[in-house]
Amino acid sequence: MQYKEVAGGICAPKGFAAAGVHCGIRANHNEKYDLALIKAEVRCAAAGVYTTNKVCGAPIKVDRAHLKDGYAQAILVNSGNANTCAANGVALAEECCALVGEALHIPAEDVLPASTGVIGQPMVIDPFARGIPAAAAKLAATAQGSTDAATREPIYLEQILEQDYMIQNENGFELAGMAIGLAMNSVDYYKVNDVPMEQAISRDKLEEQAKAYANTIITRLRQTEGLESIPIVIGIYEQSAQDSPVGGSYLFEGVSTEGTAIGEWITRNESKVVFPLQSGTQTEESSNFDNFKNEVQDFFPNLNGIVGEGKYVDGQLMSLEIDITTQFYGETEIIAFTQHVTDAAGRFLPQNIPVEITIESINGIESFLTRENDSQGFSYHIFD
What we know:
Blueprint: E1 16-21, E2 35-45, H1 58-66, E3 71-78, H2 89-104, E4 111-115, H3 126-138, H4 143-150, E5 157-169, E6 172-185, E7 187-192, E8 195-200, H5 203-222, E9 232-239, E10 248-256, E11 265-275, H6 284-299, E12 305-313, E13 316-325, H7 331-348, E14 355-361, E15 364-371, E16 379-382
Parallel strand pairs: 3-4, 6-9, 13-14
Antiparallel strand pairs: 1-2, 2-3, 5-6, 7-8, 9-10, 10-11, 11-12, 12-13, 14-15, 15-16
Helix pairs in contact: 1-2, 2-3, 6-7
């Protein structure tokens, strides 16, 4: 049998509109949509398929009652709480239907509620009272409306890192400042029915969310005794995709000296690039590294690998670290190889930037080369 995919999701049939909003049911995720609303222009013939379990959620009990006449006009779905085994479950589901009926000007009995999430936790009506009118106002008979109703908001924030700065006083130590790092995702990874999925996050959206998190964090920190007036530095870091060999980019930095606001966001635009490049357009630096790598490998073809990591600021290479791994069969071989690497580095690697080269084997670090940005030549040390 041949099937044809029809674009538009739940809004593909004429007469249906949908919307999705965040209303606060998922209190620990202030950006994820947790409420969806679907509306038909007219009452529709409707049916339900229910669990056979003795224990079922309150929405199922309400749905059975509302579908006795075989018609419905709206569906309300929430995530974050399954409304199961909650003392006020049925009353809350009925109240939600009443709110939908009021917002859409339809009978409450024509609304079908559904809930998913944690079990056994009480629910309150407040998030629904906020979210239902917002979803009703946002209803759209478009593909985007369907997407909003079905789409999960990405997980923007991966982790928060804190560094405290202490100073000594006559009573010991006191907190003098704090640095907070926000590691933001550039790609949101998740699963649908155990199938891995991913959603790219734009730089603009990442920046918007990160700065909103920063304001929230500072506001909460200022409410803690002893943190009312210390300087707080916020750094925003973009993590790279899972298949990327580099760690990501340091994007912005801001300082709050007092109060709950960042004085000014400073663009850092710091990133790291791994050489040799696996993809993308070749640059002068990558070509120089390739020449260096080929020169070293021609001299010593048994190398296990040569990998470089360059630090860029505003698109300019500021420093370079190189790791060379191989196996040696004596100190004489190590000395000869180190001297050759020193010569090749001086001829091929970029000038006027700090460069560090580590040569190691299965026995550990064998030698180390370094050049400061204001130095004309490399110095090296061979370990015993």
